[in-house]
Amino acid sequence: MQRQMLDFFLGAVSPAGFAGYFDQLLRLEPSWRVLLIKGGPGCGKSTLMRRIAQAFFLKGEQVERIHCSSDPDSLDGVICPKQRFAIVDATAPHVLEPRVPVAAQEVVSLYDYLDRDSLQSSRDEISLLFDRCSLLQERAARYVTAAAGLITDSARIGLASANLPAAQTFAQKLASRRLPATSRPPQEQIRLLSANTPNGRTIYRSTVDLLADTVLVLEDEEGAVSKAMMQTLRQAALARGQRFYTCYCPLAPCDKIDHLLFPNLSLAIVTSNSWHPFAAKNSRVIHCRRFCQKELLANYRHRLSFNRKTANCLLEQASDLQRQAKQLHDQLEVYYKTAADFAAIDQLTSRLLQDLSKEEKA
């Protein structure tokens, strides 16, 4: 496994509010060490994790940076598969508690490095900022829900025109050519490659470039055909004992697979549409409309166009609300930064790095 810095999300604003996959880190094999970091906004969680990510990367490791969808410049976690180590922000909206305390998961608290009197003297202002931030995130989720409804309507039109058995047969043949069977149990990891953020729709295409020399692009504006094909490919990958990442759609986080990444095969199978267009070197484009009745889709072209444009406007409004929430969060960070003992937090980070270095040598 070569040195790589991969970028993912593990959660995002969805039609159901915040949807995340952070709890899968509590179900890793017992040999993994997982640190659950607790602390207020701006008190150094992301900086601590960034230092750990850089330390592993400089040692030649593959490192996954888990970004915060509310602020992609901040980290929600770091995963180092070779060292079987993960550290994750375990505070809201992705609260985590140890499933196997100390033996497998440990809590690292930064609350101990905060000046209680300083924060309590501004309790009313801080509470108000938290409340206003939550309300803005809830409003953003409603816009995302409305956009997802329109995208779902387009998917239903696509489904009515689709020859799904033909698409699934094509996917099965694709799997037989591209996904060799192994004698190992399958290893599936759930990630998000994209999310609606304060910066607009953000997608980490660089992760695909790092993991795959061959990219198969399912071009599918409506999404119904690619959904069926991805489900077929995922089932084949599980049956054939592959190790892979499943990247769900943030607008349908429990239902629709957007991308499948196979590092061992240097292969990526991705979905391309208006929301996350994909253009990659060494890519082969599979036009999913080949499995649709084009005449039927043509009858709905005005409705499909309306859905696409309106959903785009709604997602832009969601991003604007997320930007407003981030501005309030930045104000919260000022209070916590003032109250934080960063010298002590730096010492804690150094101790963690020393412990990890000892474990690596052992």
Question: Which short descriptors sum up this protein?
Answer:
single chain; 362 residues; six-stranded mixed β-sheet; 26% strand
Percent of residues in beta strands:
25-35%
Shape: globular
Structural class: alpha/beta
Q: Radius of gyration from the CA trace?
A: 22 Å
Descriptive report:
The protein is of the alpha/beta class and 362 residues long. Helix content is 44%, strand content 26%. The chain contains 9 helices and 16 strands. It has helices at 45-58, 116-120, 123-161, 164-178, 205-211, 224-239, 294-299, 301-339, 342-361; strands at 4-9, 11-14, 17-20, 33-38, 62-68, 71-80, 85-89, 105-109, 187-191, 194-197, 200-203, 214-219, 243-249, 252-262, 267-272, 283-287. Strands 1-5-6-7-4-8 form a 6-stranded mixed sheet. Strands 9-13-14-15-12-16 form a 6-stranded mixed sheet, with helices on one face. The chain has a two-stranded antiparallel sheet with strand order 2-3. A hairpin with a 4-residue loop joins strand 14 (252-262) and strand 15 (267-272). The longest helix has 39 residues, at 123-161. The model has no long low-confidence stretch (mean pLDDT 94).
